[in-house]
Amino acid sequence: MKRKTLSLLIIGVLILAVVIMDGCIEEENSESTSEPKPGQLGEPKIVIKEYNISIYDVGVDRFYFDSVKVLLRNEGRASAEIEKLLLSSGKSKIDNTLYSEQSLNPGEEKDFKFYLPTYTAVEKEIGADKVKGTISIINTSGGILAEKNITIQVPNVRIGDTITEVEDTNNLSMTLLWWKKSDIAVDGLYVNGYYTFIAKPNMTFIILAYKFQNNWNREQITPYINQGEIATNKKYIYNRWNPPEGVNSEEYQPRESTEEEVNELIGDSGGYENLLPGESVEGCIVFEIPEDQTPIETSIAYMLPLIKYWEETK
Q1: pTM value?
Q2: What is the CATH number of the domain that holds 75?
């Protein structure tokens, strides 16, 4: 009787062992067929920790960039081969490839600097104070390693502000003095002095006055501003006004300016002036727009920020 009881006990233990082993096998199979976690099989996981965008130039409807610096971290379990950066906004896309492929190892954090082609622009809505876009990091196979939504602030100034960095100069500043609509504009110097021009029918001049100040410890020459654009409330864009035939432009009915007109409307660009340390000179840039429109912003040569218009200041 004892032998039978012992035999039954041994059989029970063997059955229990088989059940436990079967459960372990099922659990192991279940783990092996479940979806792997990120990085479990050795994938890289790139995160854009920080970014800095260097702006080359700003137009009334577009941005030009010099470079993008990004701080990347690999939080995955495998190295990532990084080839290029893609900067996109709306329909615009700019990319640039690194001089050589670079790796980012697991747990590694590194700065990458991508130099962008300056002739390629990202579109900007006229009047917008910021532009939204996306930075994408691309691997050697063309796949996206990381993406980050970004906001780019549009650099701008208003009347009364001073632009401290004028391109191709040494510590030369430009202070915006005033702007106004006018039926006439003064231009010069010509051989016989300044001349006054009358705006074409249904058009008006926008005169923007400024002051160059030499803050350097040496004499220097002011730049001649011969390029610029103005955008209006109808989202139209007009180039800097320049009478195509000078004093022979019959459509503007030019005549010699009075002293009062020259003093009131300046008439000179303030360019190519030799300024001693501490000296300054006033100048202006002129645009011609339809008289039923109002200006919103202006982009001019040698200046990075856009100039915003409000009510007339003179």
Answers
A1: 0.79
A2: 2.60.40.10
